[in-house]
Amino acid sequence: MSTDSTPPATGLLFEEARSAEIVAASFRGTPDARLRQIMTSLVSHLHAFVKDVRLTPEEWEAGIRFLTETGQMCDETRQEFILLSDTLGVSMLVESLAHRVHGELTEATVEGPFHVIASPRRELGDDINVAGEPGERCVVTGRVVDAEGGPVRGASVDVWQANAEGFYDVQKPDEMGHGDLRGMFTADDDGRYWFRTIVPSHYPIPADGPVGRMLRRTDRHEWRPAHIHFEVSSPGLRTVTTHIFVEGSPYLDSDTVFGVKRSLVREFRLVDDEDAAAAYGVPNPFRSVEFVAVLDREEPQ
Amino acid sequence: MSTDSTPPATGLLFEEARSAEIVAASFRGTPDARLRQIMTSLVSHLHAFVKDVRLTPEEWEAGIRFLTETGQMCDETRQEFILLSDTLGVSMLVESLAHRVHGELTEATVEGPFHVIASPRRELGDDINVAGEPGERCVVTGRVVDAEGGPVRGASVDVWQANAEGFYDVQKPDEMGHGDLRGMFTADDDGRYWFRTIVPSHYPIPADGPVGRMLRRTDRHEWRPAHIHFEVSSPGLRTVTTHIFVEGSPYLDSDTVFGVKRSLVREFRLVDDEDAAAAYGVPNPFRSVEFVAVLDREEPQ
């Protein structure tokens, strides 16, 4: 028997001391049990916040204005509420709760707003810097393995990154074209993948809206440390959406969206080796980074 | 010495268990101490909510969509975020925290979205039903007194209300004109005021937006019980923004914005008295309600 037959709430006369309880009672008749749980918890925490700081009518008005402007900043290419969620650490928390890992499994991080176009299919070893952007040349090598260390043959390795000035192709379509610094690779029979690129730069999130104002008023910066995005998947295994971060990048310990986990920081090693450079088809010296993605078994449904 | 010199946050690598603490640390450098307190508390309660319900990425996406649409529903005449705040009981909580009263002092309630035009100045005894709307005729009488019961001579009594179909003038400008069922009165030397009107109806809040969808999905209704708005003020005393509610109105115990306090419910008494009707200039029988507003001394600044 479901709880859908809960009688409608009555007696909702307002009292400050019981405010959360009174409002939560208005949601007692919510047919969907999960939605009921979410609304009840939301009301409880929201009222606790208002009481905790004893929010004034003027502050409440400022909050209403901020939320309204945040919604009105959104369009097809700008999602200011996601930025707000990112800069309050909520996106990262949701991602972490959804993707709890143990042992050697690769940790997840935020997907970010730039995975908006499909990465072009490329061959192992391809250079994803198709527009010939300036920057330090870099070879990325790695493997996709399962929790037991076994190779995941034919795994999909989707990568996207900013250029050496911190821009994604979709931000500079005239100069970078469509698909620059993106690639969809297929791991070989041993789970190995490799490609050529340039070292990405750290960059600021869009800061010309309400979220940017919030960051300035709280003396926070708007920067993310340098990173390459990965989405690694294979049938039967849990997809992991993550980054590798460039060790030594500025803002590594103050990412404005809290995306950095220690396990995801990688040395982009300077290699001075003519033979290796020739073998990879890059000028000597070059940077080299390795990333082994360890995927969990799919959760039973 | 201010705390402005707090060193900038460092070491903000994300960890699920300490997520609120890590994000709060990013606000340590906020120059304004009150804003710092608000952001710290907000982050703490927001993360507690996400963890409490273990919000999934799909639910988070639905939340982002809801907030975005709520912002985009707003324009000059529609404030959907205030509606959201109202229907989650937040507006009422903020109002109550700002206007804590004791003893016989008149309690506050939400101002609502219809106090958007200035009420026309009227003489004591005037009929605010200037458009001649159909409805039960009603005489409102009362006094404005201070906490000791002394008359507040010349107090301003601003009233506004819906008609017998639940509409304010600004919602039906063609039929009701501008200023119908509104009035700005000045109490006499004994603090007394009186005016003629019609009994207002209960009415629904605007429900064609995201907030309306939220109410329907949670099996809540969109109605407010019948009421007359008052804003009573006088120099040196605290302004009170409140309503009187019509005893016996539908939805009195389930106001969708949680505006009802028991002390604000009034009997709109049926009077069958030819002499009284003639004295007030209304047809017999008529309704009569009394409201004594008790104002506190202004808080010391």
Task: Walk me through the structure.
The structure is a homodimer of 301-residue chains. By secondary structure, the first copy, chain A, is α+β, with helices and mostly antiparallel strands. Helix content of chain A is 27%, strand content 20%. The first copy, chain A, has helices at 19-25, 33-53, 57-72, 80-87, 90-98, 173-176, 210-217, 274-280, and strands spanning 137-146, 156-161, 182-186, 192-198, 203-204, 223-224, 227-233, 240-246, 265-266, 269-271, 286-295. In chain A, strand 7 and strand 8 (240-246) form a beta hairpin. The longest helix of chain A is centred in the first third of the chain and has 21 residues, at 33-53. Chain A is globular and about 80 Å long. Chain A starts with 18 loop residues before the first helix and ends in a 6-residue tail after the last strand. Mean pLDDT of chain A is 93; it is low at 1-10. The interface between A and B is large, with 80 and 80 residues.
Total number of domains of chain A? 2
**Quaternary arrangement of the chains shown?**
homodimer
Strand content of chain A: 15-25%
Largest beta-sheet characterization of chain A: 5 strands, mixed
CATH class designation of the largest domain in chain A: Mainly Beta
Shape of chain A: globular
Order of helix and strand elements from N to C terminus of chain A: HHHHHEEHEEEHEEEEEHE
| CATH fold title of the largest domain in chain A | Protocatechuate 3,4-Dioxygenase, subunit A
Gyration radius of chain A, in Å? 23 Å
- List low-confidence stretches of chain A: 1-10
CATH architecture of the largest domain in chain A: Sandwich
SS-derived structural category of chain A: alpha+beta
| CATH H-level homologous superfamily name of the largest domain in chain A | Aromatic compound dioxygenase
Largest interface: A-B, 80 and 80 residues
The first-to-last residue Cα distance of chain A is: 23 Å
Q: Largest beta sheet of chain A: what is the strand line-up?
A: 3-2-7-8-9
Number of strands of chain A: 11
Mean pLDDT of chain A: 93
DSSP helix fraction of chain A: 25-40%
Given the structure, what is the number of helices of chain A? 8
